[in-house]
């Protein structure tokens, strides 16, 4: 119970800090974060000897770091972009859909941007194609710790992903400066981030 209480307090504190950013700060910092991610992806292409990558990413909502500047670069580079859509019939579960531009996005559950309903989901057996996964969250530490919103969507996704692939994708996060904290309380089922994308730099986590 103490762990849950500590997480709830931390979520509230991190929400307040992120909401305190001005729209101008969020736009500029998001652009810088996207530039850092684009630089990393160029290195990942060389490392994997691929001209194009498959990226699975959240679609920003409200005051989250905006992923869209990076997605436009990915589409121009010929990368495959995947995004989640919540399954209304199964609690805390989403499916993965390829999107080829902003025309493939619409407001979904809770108003969160999601792939349009006419699109076909990527079969779970093909999830092993994902090279880079960008997950949302409220806060992070420099050891790869992450605290999300409490819904468990990405914890369940990672658990399902492990069933189809032993070679997991690089797990990254877009991070405003206010979202870094000294220590995130982690539980056994929580996964850790591999790389933090921050304003004009990225930090690889030494695990």
TrEMBL record:
Belongs to the 5-formyltetrahydrofolate cyclo-ligase family. Its EC number is 6.3.3.2. Keywords: ATP-binding, Ligase, Magnesium, Metal-binding, Nucleotide-binding. It catalyses: (6S)-5-formyl-5,6,7,8-tetrahydrofolate + ATP = (6R)-5,10-methenyltetrahydrofolate + ADP + phosphate. InterPro entries: FTHF_cligase (IPR002698), FTHF_cligase-like_sf (IPR024185), NagB/RpiA_transferase-like (IPR037171). GO terms for biological process: folic acid-containing compound biosynthetic process; tetrahydrofolate interconversion. Substrate binds at residues 59, 64. This is 5-formyltetrahydrofolate cyclo-ligase. The keyword S-adenosyl-L-methionine does not apply. Its cofactor is Mg(2+). GO terms for molecular function: 5-formyltetrahydrofolate cyclo-ligase activity; ATP binding; metal ion binding. It is an enzyme of class 6 (ligase). ATP binds at residues 7-11, 146-154.
């Amino acid at each position: 119970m103490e762990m849950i209480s500590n997480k709830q307090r931390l979520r509230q504190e991190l929400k307040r800090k992120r909401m305190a950013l001005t729209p101008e700060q969020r736009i500029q910092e998001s652009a810088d974060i996207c530039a850092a991610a684009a630089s990393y992806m160029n290195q990942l292409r060389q490392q994997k000897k691929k001209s194009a990558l498959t990226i699975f990413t959240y679609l920003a909502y409200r005051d989250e770091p905006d992923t869209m500047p990076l997605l436009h670069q990915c589409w121009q580079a010929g990368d495959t972009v995947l995004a989640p859509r919540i399954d209304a019939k199964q609690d805390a579960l989403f499916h993965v859909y390829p999107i080829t531009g902003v025309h493939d996005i619409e407001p979904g559950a809770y108003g969160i941007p999601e792939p349009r309903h006419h699109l076909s989901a990527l079969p779970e057996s093909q999830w092993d194609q994902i090279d880079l996964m960008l997950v949302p969250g409220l806060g992070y530490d420099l050891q790869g710790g992450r605290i999300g919103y409490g819904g468990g969507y990405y914890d369940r996704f990672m658990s399902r992903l492990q069933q189809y692939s032993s070679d997991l994708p690089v797990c990254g996060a877009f991070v405003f400066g206010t979202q870094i904290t000294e220590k995130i309380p982690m539980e056994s089922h929580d996964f850790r981030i591999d790389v933090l994308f921050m304003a004009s730099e990225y930090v690889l986590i030494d695990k």
